[in-house]
Amino acid sequence: MDDQPVLVFDSGIGGLTVLREARVLMPERRFVYVADDAGFPYGGWAEDALRDRIVDLFDGLLRDHDPALCIVACNTAFTVAGAALRAAYPGMTFVGTVPAIKPAAERTRSGRVSVLATPGTVRRDYTRDLIQSYASQCHVTLVGSPRLARMAEAYVRGLPVSDEAVAAEIGPCFVEEDGARTDIVVLACTHYPFMANVFRRLAPWPVDWLDPAEAIARRARSLLPRRADALHPEEDDLALFTGGRPDFATRRLMNSFGLKVG
Ligand code: DGL
């Protein structure tokens, strides 16, 4: 049990924003990062097809890596497949990522919150249910960006991304009505925190950009036994891609996160 890794799953590089927090809290753990780049982007997939794909993928992942716990570091994946994963693999603990609507509703002063996600996540019943359960007293604006996840993939690889294009994607998050302005934008796609500084610079007014990565890492930490022994050497941490060996820029990115591309 003790040497079992934590498996972190996303459609692409977004889960790295969660991995970096998880590493801080679980320095003794080995990590396996899995990017379903062959299926990227998840935002435009039909729900049933995406759910089946993810449940099938985990069949092999659980067998090959025997993880102690899995973090589904992708809102688009977890909101559609979280329940199915738990039903299909009852022996495994899945820590999910869902839009941080509850903490946003607790923190907003203006009562206006926006959720910046993929088109898939904003369509989900799961997201609507979160709003009904926790934010019925707020005005919630759902913004499903068809392009931002791709832009974030490019941005972290050092490719140019135009300010105008980013501003057009985040613009609908900024709502001003009856003298009240949006004061919190939930980053409901794990790719987006990589661009938070760009968002801040291009925002028409300052808002709190809510990134749930640390909360997800804390949840995972709380579910795994703590080990008092030495740090786990990062050289053992792996990154795997469903599309096969990734390009040089991606390999360099993974290496910069201390992940060996397998
Ligand atoms: N990182 C994923 C999320 O949190 C989505 C990116 C994609 O469209 O595949 O929703």
UniProtKB/TrEMBL annotation:
GO terms for biological process: cell wall organization; peptidoglycan biosynthetic process; regulation of cell shape. This is Glutamate racemase. The active site is at C74 (proton donor/acceptor), C189 (proton donor/acceptor). Provides the (R)-glutamate required for cell wall biosynthesis. Keywords: Cell shape, Cell wall biogenesis/degradation, Isomerase, Peptidoglycan synthesis. InterPro entries: Asp/Glu/hydantoin_racemase, Asp/Glu_race, Asp/Glu_racemase_AS_2, Glu_race. The lineage of its organism: Bacteria, Pseudomonadati, Pseudomonadota, Betaproteobacteria, Burkholderiales. Pathway: Cell wall biogenesis; peptidoglycan biosynthesis. Belongs to the aspartate/glutamate racemases family. GO terms for molecular function: glutamate racemase activity. It is an enzyme of class 5 (isomerase). It catalyses: L-glutamate = D-glutamate. Substrate binds at D10, S11, Y42, G43, N75, T76, T190, H191. It comes from Castellaniella defragrans. The keyword Signal does not apply.
